[in-house]
Amino acid sequence: MVATVGSNGAGKTTTLKTISGLLRPSSGGIEFKGERLDQIPSHLVVEKEVAHVPEGRRLFPFSTVLANLEIGAYTKRARERKVESLKFVFEFFPVLRERQKQLAGTLSGGEQQMLAIARALMSMPRLLMLDEPSLGLAPMLVNKVFEVLKQLNDQGLTILLVEQNIHSTLNLCDRGYVLENGRIVMEGSGQELLNNPHVKEAYLGVL
Questions:
Q1: Can you name the residues that pair with 31 across neighbouring β-strands?
Q2: Which ranges in 33-108 belong to alpha helices (H)?
Q3: 85 phi and psi angles, rounded to 5 deg
Q4: Separation CA 113–CA 134 (nearest Å)
Q5: What's the whole-number average pLDDT of the chain?
Q6: What is the pLDDT of residues 16-50, one digit of tens each?
Q7: Neighbours of 132 (CB within 10 A)
Q8: 89 burial class (0-12, 13-18, 19+ CB within 10 angstroms)?
Q9: Is the separation of the CB atoms in 148 and 114 below 8 Å?
Q10: CA separation (Å) from 8 to 11, 96, 131, 200?
Q11: How many whole angstroms separate alpha carbon 135 and alpha carbon 137?
């Protein structure tokens, strides 16, 4: 699990959008599993087993929970294993099984975030990217989201996490990168960054 942290405007969301093909890099390239991603459209990036949970969840609010999940399994590989994937996400998120006929827009904020993560998992990714998954959630639900991410990571899923909840994020991740003005200014293990004086002062409010 890798975290990218920094202030607003540092380039965190831009990084995720560029990896997922929504933006094109002005130079350089992006590789995943030995294949270039920056030269293909975003729907083909998903077929390369990369899933992106955007900031704000971006659900289809007037479609049911089940329909949102099925939309996540649109690639050929994911369609072939849709039943298996549905079973997996319902075991992981029991509330979604209970509410599968409910409109996504009527779920609570925490339930919507779970649905957004579950929809991404339906594409059967090897890399799951999340942009501010704790945004707007109550502290108890934030803890639940981080617990889910840890469980997914423990099962072998690679996670790239953008978060402003820096303390919890760096405690959770294996490695972190600090972005400032579009550049990486610091990197290290989560604990190394948590103990770094600059990170403490600039992002954790500790002098």
A1: 36
A2: 42-47, 65-72, 76-80, 82-92, 94-98
A3: -70, -40
A4: 8
A5: 90
A6: 999 999 999 989 999 999 999 998 999 999 999 99
A7: 21
A8: buried
A9: yes
A10: 8, 32, 12, 17
A11: 6
150-195 pLDDT, tens per residue?
999 999 999 999 988 888 889 889 999 999 888 999 999 999 998 8
Q: Which H or E element spans position 119?
A: helix 109-121
CB burial readout 137-175, b (16+ within 10 A) else e: beeebbebbbebbeebbeeebbbbbbbebbbbbbebbee
| Six-digit token string for 93 | 């998120």
Structure tokens at 47: 């077929």
Distance CA 49, CA 32 (A): 9
User: Which amino acid type is present at position 156?
Assistant: G
How far the first Cα of the chain sits from its last, in Å, is: 28
| Each residue's pLDDT tens digit, 74-94 | 888 899 999 999 999 999 899
Entry pTM: 0.88
CA gap 61, 68 in Å, rounded? 9
Q: Structural domains in the chain?
A: 2-203 (3.40.50.300)
Helices and strands of the chain, counted as H and E runs: 11, 8
Structure tokens at 196: 């770094």
> What span, in angstroms and rounded, lies between the C-alpha atoms of 203 and 170?
11
